[in-house]
Fold Permease.
Amino acid sequence: MVEATQIRPVAAGRSRLRAMLQGLKSPWAMIVLLLLAVAVLDPENLGPVGLFAGAALAQTAKYIVIAVLLLAYLKASGAEALVARAFEGREMRMIFFAALLGGLAPFCSCQVIPFIAGLLALGAPLSAVMAFWLSSPLIDPPTLLITAGALGWPFALAKAVAAVALGLFGGLAVKALARGGALSEPLKQVQRKSCCGCGGPKEHDKPVWRFWSEIPRREIFRKEVFTNGLFLLKWLALAYVLEALLVRYVPADLIAQLVGGEGVGSIAIAALVGMPAYLNSYVAPPLLAGLIGQGMSVGSAMAFMIAGAVSSIPAMAAVWSLVKPRVFALYLGLGLVGAVLAGLMFQLVM
């Protein structure tokens, strides 16, 4: 009895410690810790850092509002049902529409897994699935608006074009390899449930564009506005604090030396650094704006952003959970090559 009484406080202490460490991972906690570090180590720059981050966040506010309302509308109306229709018909048609709609799909990271699993179970070819997988992490309506607010519309639209092009590139590459038998039996056991309990695509779902006529859909709209608004606010606040610290403390000549050139080398370095150093899609644009201001070339910025999105933990988890290692390696390889090509093309155009 004495031993059991002694074990309970230890277990409770460990539980509190885990909860505390988990709380420190939140964007709000990271913002407080970063500003606290500036206040202790360099108090004279606390004001300039806070003003820079606040002004940048205020400038992006209109894009946040539009993005939140648009995403809530797409969810409430059930617009994701349109994506399933892209995987019907001939294989080439499926590849094209999968790449095109991948950037428009309003899926959260965990919804991608059961959606793709359902498509594979229904017999969708791996080529079309790969096209969707590669384009989906790169852009969606909120990311497009946030990127435009931080880096300008030319960069945002170029990234959207790159997303579709990368999807087509990956889909056609997989189609060619599958024809030669290199990708026979690529799938693991199909997973039909996601971490949030969402199922795969439903064949008979149809969008309801005037969603406000149905009470459940109005509730979805309100919930999505609150959830996505809070999500974007906390991540963008962290992004602009990090940008302020980057501009204040990282020497511009160092960045220019590493990724400031216009050749293949600097763009390839940016892509290679971007893959392991993934940043949230809403955090990356403000940070890249700071890097470009410090001397990073626009081609390197594009390569960094695309490579980082392809190698994000949710994107990789979606692929790893469903396919065998060789297909997973192919996904990463296609993403890296596509990122370098996109960076070179954008550098050439700009």
